[in-house]
Design brief:
The structure holds 2 protein chains of 2 kinds. Chain A is mainly β. Chain A has 4 helices and 21 strands. The longest helix of chain A has 6 residues. Chain B is an alpha+beta fold. Chain B contains 2 helices and 10 strands, in the order αβββββαβββββ. In chain B, strands 3, 4, 5, 6, 7, 8, 9 and 10 form an 8-stranded mixed sheet that branches. A two-stranded antiparallel sheet of chain B has the order 1-2. In chain B, helix 1 crosses helix 2. Chain B starts with a helix and ends in a 5-residue tail after the last strand. In chain B, 30% of the residues are buried. Classes of the chains: A mainly beta, B alpha+beta.
């Protein structure tokens, strides 16, 4: 009888897939990833609330937890160790510039540049925007219902931002992703739509409304939500706000094994940074790709199973038929 | 390692059938997908046009692992003169199409290892996997455009191999 198992060497992999999910800032609740139920998920269809950020490069994990020795005896010798600090850092290169990757690779708020009418006073984050249009009830995450006159204002290929009017509130704003923390009341009615992550590309525009190329990450628009056109994105070096995300990095091995790094809480460690990489190693002054570099500090959570604090979970799902 | 070589070839053959079912070749009276293994056919002085031909080259073995890993280099050659209907003026387009088919055949870069010497073929425990191809420049010989790509194919030796 032939063996129905084999000794698997160390995993061989060459790509890393990344997923992020918002942390509920008000309740300080990170996204949970359960390897027992979700470990073998289809990389192209991650479980909610994880958002696919595509393939990444150069994931570098830096465990920085420190231990201290407890010395006893004469002469003193280490009797045991105690955990002194829990710390970890993470660097990753994103292979695409999107709203989310750009936001992750910046140190503070990430803003939508709302389209402005011509002639208004210029502003670094974008001028006073064109008035938002009201979203009709019955809209979904992928279909935005508008009145016919409003729908005419948007064409296929437009980028839109969907969220509530700002009405003078303070604290975290934006849902489900807190895009900013407002310390004192502002006057810009469009401020939440400037920081919202509910942005999407319009795939089709009809008299009934808009069909989006990808669903809004916040799901169906909330009652009272409005919509504005977005020209692009902007962030700043500076500011006091720290974004916070849960992150998942997946490496599939050649034999069907899977390594998963789950960081429940990540905050940006540095300001916006890019790396310029020539497309051809033979022509370093030729065309170059500008990659976003995300650098993060992992923050701890208390594991409900035993009360221990941790900053990262590393899961390994062995290859089928591999000895463990 | 023969099982790995067979599995790699059969995976590419199945994928080619899906990518372009019209790419076929008549071999010994039988119409087959247009991909051949040179060492498994009668010798030919010139590789046939519009067909992928696999040639096995170098071999390396890493014995330090708990399961020995073999790396076999595969060269995939293909060429075209275009079609008679267009007087060969479409040869560049046809080569581009074969380039595209090659890339499609090689993705994803793994396939189950199968023992084709048994009847029916038996699926083994491990997977065969490979690197991204290193694609050579086009070679021009009169009206013939040809290209080759090299792929390193890896596999783990299983008990009984």
């Amino acid at each position: 009888m032939s063996a129905n198992w084999f000794s698997a060497p160390a995993p061989v992999t060459h790509r890393i897939r990344g997923y992020f999910a918002p942390v509920a800032r008000v309740t300080q609740t990170p996204a949970i990833f359960d390897p027992s139920q979700q470990g073998r998920f289809n990389l192209d269809a991650p479980p909610a609330p994880w958002i696919d950020l595509g393939w990444m490069q150069d994931l570098e994990r830096k465990p920085a937890s420190k231990s201290a020795s407890v010395l006893t005896g004469i002469p003193a010798a280490t009797q045991q160790q105690v955990r002194q600090t829990i710390d970890a850092q993470l660097t990753v290169h994103f292979l695409a510039w999107t709203k989310l990757t750009m936001a992750l690779a910046t140190g503070s708020q990430h803003m939508n540049v709302l389209t402005a009418p011509s002639g208004v006073a210029p502003a670094p984050l974008g001028a006073q925007a064109t008035t938002a249009v009201t979203i009709q009830s019955g809209s979904t995450a992928s279909t935005i219902l508008l009145s016919a006159p409003d729908a005419e204002k948007f064409t296929a290929g437009s980028i839109i931002a969907v969220d509530q009017d700002y009405t003078g509130q303070t604290g975290f704003v934006g849902s489900p992703v807190s895009g900013a923390y407002v310390r004192q009341a502002l006057t810009d009615v469009d401020y939440i739509r400037r920081v919202t992550y509910n942005v999407a590309l319009v795939a089709q525009s009809t008299s009934a409304g808009l069909t989006l190329a990808s669903p809004l990450i916040g799901g169906a628009p909330q009652p009272g939500a409005k919509l504005q056109s977005v020209a692009g994105f902007v962030d700043r070096e500076g500011g006091c706000f720290y974004q916070e995300w849960s992150a998942l990095f997946v490496m599939d091995g050649s034999q069907g094994e899977r390594i998963i790094f789950h960081y429940p809480r990540l905050q940006p460690l540095k300001g916006a940074e890019e790396e310029v990489a020539p497309l051809s190693a033979k022509n370093k002054s030729g065309q170059s790709r500008v990659q976003l570099v995300g650098q993060f500090l992992a923050l701890p959570v208390t594991d409900p199973s035993d009360g221990e604090r941790a900053v990262c979970y590393r899961s390994f799902l062995p290859a089928p038929n591999a000895l463990v | 390692m023969q099982n790995a070589k067979d599995s790699f070839y059969m995976a590419l053959r199945a994928r080619l059938t899906s990518v372009n079912p019209q790419r076929t070749v008549l071999v010994r009276g039988a119409v087959r997908p247009g991909i051949l293994v040179e060492e498994a056919e009668a010798p030919f002085s010139q590789i046939p046009n519009d067909v992928f031909v696999l040639r096995w080259l170098g071999l390396a073995v890493d014995m330090d692992l708990c399961s020995a890993m073999t790396a076999v280099e595969c060269e995939i050659q293909y060429q075209t003169c275009g079609t008679l209907a267009f007087g060969g003026l479409d040869r560049g387009r046809l080569l581009s199409q074969m380039d595209s088919e090659l890339v499609s055949m090689l993705s994803p870069s793994c396939t189950p290892k199968i023992n084709y010497s048994t009847m029916p073929p038996s699926t083994m425990l491990t997977q065969v996997f490979w690197d991204e191809p290193i694609i050579a420049p086009v070679a021009v010989q009169r009206d013939r455009l040809s290209r080759s790509a090299r792929v390193m194919v890896y596999s783990y030796q299983e008990q009984g191999e």
